């Protein structure tokens, strides 16, 4: 025991010195700041933004041109309108008017509406050319239509189709609950109505206006027209056929003449 005493004393002295050194370092170290404490805290990761959904697929590219339908007021017939053809007995277009009436009645039947264009008659008394020219000009310029001459007022029928030899833009006055409609068809001996298949589609086109349709801008459709630059020569064809109407126009006709439509008188 006596021999080991110096060794024990040395160990005790070493331990005391070590403890003193640790206490001194601890006293000299500055306390941790709030910033340091915050930096040592675990940080929750920010949620990643949701991915932008892809645009829905369409049947046609976004840049593909669509059909523009130029709007018109809703002015349906409230009765089955009788049709009178005013033309010379030798006019070769008389049968085209009858066929155009059949065309529209078939379209209406396929839509399921009971509305129809009525019976067709032919008279040889002609609508005065100056009246047709004045109505055409007023229609194009959006002006008030001239008064019908007495000869026209005496004509039978609710819808008068005037087959003329005059030079004017073919037209149809607007339909209405009580208004008589006049359709004016220009000379068929000069372009574009002398081109094959044009006259039949011009007549059907104007009858389309007479039952309430407006224009569109598609040269492959029957109701193409102003303000579109397309003109009647787009109907030219070596085959006798009617250009089709659009689905929008079919829906509009069914709105004017629903399946529950009934004549008011």
Would you summarize the structure shown here?
Helix content is 34%, strand content 8%. It has helices at residues 5-28, 34-40, 94-111, 129-141, 150-153, 198-210, 247-256, and strands at 83-86, 120-123, 159-163, 171-172, 181-185.
Query: How many helix segments?
Result: 7
What structural class do helix, strand and pairing data support? alpha/beta
Helix content: 25-40%
Q: Write out the CATH superfamily name of the domain at 83-255.
A: Collagenase (Catalytic Domain)
What would your notes on this structure say?
It is a single chain. A 5-stranded mixed β-sheet has the order 2-1-3-5-4, with helices on both faces. The model is unreliable at 1-64 (pLDDT under 50). Strand 1 (83-86), helix 3 (94-111) and strand 2 (120-123) form a beta-alpha-beta unit. 34% of the residues lie in helices and 8% in strands. It has a domain at 83-255: Collagenase (Catalytic Domain) (3-Layer(aba) Sandwich), CATH 3.40.390.10. The chain has helices at 5-28, 34-40, 94-111, 129-141, 150-153, 198-210, 247-256; strands at 83-86, 120-123, 159-163, 171-172, 181-185. The protein has 7 helices and 5 strands.
Any descriptors?
265 residues; alpha/beta; Collagenase (Catalytic Domain); 5-stranded mixed β-sheet; 7 helices; globular; disordered N terminus
Give the topology, please.
Blueprint lengths: L4 H24 L5 H7 L42 E4 L7 H18 L8 E4 L5 H13 L8 H4 L5 E5 L7 E2 L8 E5 L12 H13 L36 H10 L9
Parallel strand pairs: 1-2, 1-3, 3-5
Antiparallel strand pairs: 4-5
Helix pairs in contact: 3-6
């Amino acid at each position: 025991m006596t021999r080991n005493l110096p060794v024990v004393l040395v160990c005790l002295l070493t331990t005391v010195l070590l403890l003193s050194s640790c206490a001194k370092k601890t006293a000299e170290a500055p306390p941790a700041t709030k910033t340091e404490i915050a930096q040592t805290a675990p940080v929750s990761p920010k949620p990643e933004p949701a991915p932008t959904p892809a645009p829905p697929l369409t049947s046609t590219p976004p840049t593909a041109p669509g059909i523009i339908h130029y709007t018109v007021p809703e002015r349906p017939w409230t009765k089955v309108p009788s049709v009178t053809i005013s033309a010379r007995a030798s006019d070769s277009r008389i049968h085209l008017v009858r066929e155009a009436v059949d065309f529209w009645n078939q379209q209406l039947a396929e839509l399921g509406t009971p509305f129809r264009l009525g019976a067709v008659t032919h008279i040889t008394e002609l609508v005065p050319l100056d009246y047709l020219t004045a109505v055409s000009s007023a229609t194009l310029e959006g002006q008030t239509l001239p008064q019908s001459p007495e000869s026209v007022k005496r004509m039978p029928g609710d819808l008068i189709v005037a087959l003329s030899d005059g030079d004017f833009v073919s037209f149809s006055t607007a339909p209405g609950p009580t208004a008589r409609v006049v359709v004016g068809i220009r000379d068929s001996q000069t372009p574009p109505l002398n081109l094959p298949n044009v006259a039949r589609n011009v007549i059907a086109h104007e009858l389309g206006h007479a039952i309430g349709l407006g224009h569109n801008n598609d040269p492959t459709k029957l109701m193409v027209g102003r303000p579109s630059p397309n003109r009647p020569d787009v109907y030219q064809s070596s085959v006798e056929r009617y250009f089709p109407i659009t689905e929008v126009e079919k829906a509009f006709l069914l709105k004017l003449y629903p399946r529950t439509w009934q004549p008011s008188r």
